[in-house]
Design a protein that fits this description.
309 residues, alpha/beta, Rossmann fold, 7-stranded parallel β-sheet, two-stranded antiparallel sheet, 9 strands, 39% helix
């Protein structure tokens, strides 16, 4: 029997690269997509309009493909840009033509560029539009192409790597520990997709999840974000990968369909990453359901409140 197929966006480094590796380890062949195909390629990765930054970041599709193959799975690197609809269509088409199916999509890629850490009054509207397109519209374009096959087979999973910025306000301005408006509003739009599609496609066998990582120690965080007040001391990317694989392999995942999962708390409470000590106390807000019981998911509490009237 051939392996099932996963497609991971933003897979040249960070969360995407580690998710691709863990998916391969779980028995999936993995198609990986991003802008950086070969190690050492230059891309604009400055988060502010105030300067340009094009020095190569560590990581590439080539390197991720090698990691996938080292786990004994097939890898298919396909270049694509979230701001280029043609490249997105070509990416999905290539995977379907080569491997015949896509069973899992991990939407990890997002907009990288100026405006991410700039104040609203300093940010041109066109940069806000770019963030909305890359972070919210581009994943919908991929969904449009993969969901018909999933529905026809009666199974499939779409996992969106979301962000707390989609439902929480920053405590500091952009560049001083906070983030720009374009990032928050685009992630807010992205955050609404899983629940909506879980409702629309209920009974088809296709499931949708948001996985909210909180701060993760990635290569780009280490290289780029200290100057904006973002400390490079987050959790390992394996935390997110462990949750992704759990959602694909554990029978209990069904009850989370359409919901948001706080990855660090979820991973720690279930012991999905042995040896990891868990989220920092300052990053663990206490949330309660209607009975006063502490819970780890805001949407679950909100849904209980709505159902209770």
């Amino acid at each position: 029997m051939e392996n099932k197929v996963a497609l991971v966006t933003g897979a040249s480094r960070g969360i995407g690269r580690v998710c691709a590796q863990w998916l391969a380890r779980a028995g999936y062949d993995v198609a990986v997509t991003a802008r950086t195909v070969h190690e050492g390629e230059s891309r604009e990765h400055s988060s502010t309009l105030k300067k340009s930054k094009t020095d190569p970041l560590p990581g590439s599709l080539d390197a991720t493909a090698a990691v996938v193959e080292a786990e004994g799975a097939r890898a298919l690197p396909v270049a694509a840009d979230l701001l280029d609809p043609v490249s997105l269509g070509a990416c999905v088409t290539t995977v379907l033509e080569r491997w015949g199916r896509i069973d899992v999509v991990v939407h990890n890629g997002r907009y990288i560029g100026p405006g991410h850490m700039d104040m609203f009054l300093d940010t041109p509207i066109e940069l806000l539009e770019k963030q909305i397109f890359a972070n919210a519209v581009a994943p919908l374009m991929i969904n449009k192409l993969v969901l018909p096959g999933m529905v026809a087979r009666g199974s499939g999973t779409v996992i969106s790597i979301s962000s707390a910025s989609g439902y929480a306000d920053p405590t500091q301005p952009p560049g001083q520990g906070g983030w720009g408006l374009g990032y928050g509003m685009s992630k807010a739009a992205f955050h609404r997709v899983a629940g909506q599609l879980a409702t629309e496609l209920a009974g088809t066998g296709v499931r949708f999840y948001n996985v909210q990582p909180n701060l993760i120690a990635t290569e780009r965080i280490a290289v780029d974000m200290a100057e904006f007040g973002i400390k490079p001391n987050g959790a390992p990317a394996e935390v997110v990968a462990a949750v992704v694989v759990w959602l694909l392999t554990d029978p209990g995942a069904e009850e989370w369909n359409g919901l948001n999962i706080e990855a660090q708390f979820f991973c720690h409470e279930r012991g999905l990453l042995p040896g990891w000590s868990g989220p920092e106390p300052a990053e663990a807000p206490i949330r309660y359901d209607l009975s006063g019981k502490v819970i780890d998911d805001y949407e679950r509490a909100l849904r209980a409140r709505l159902q209770a009237g």
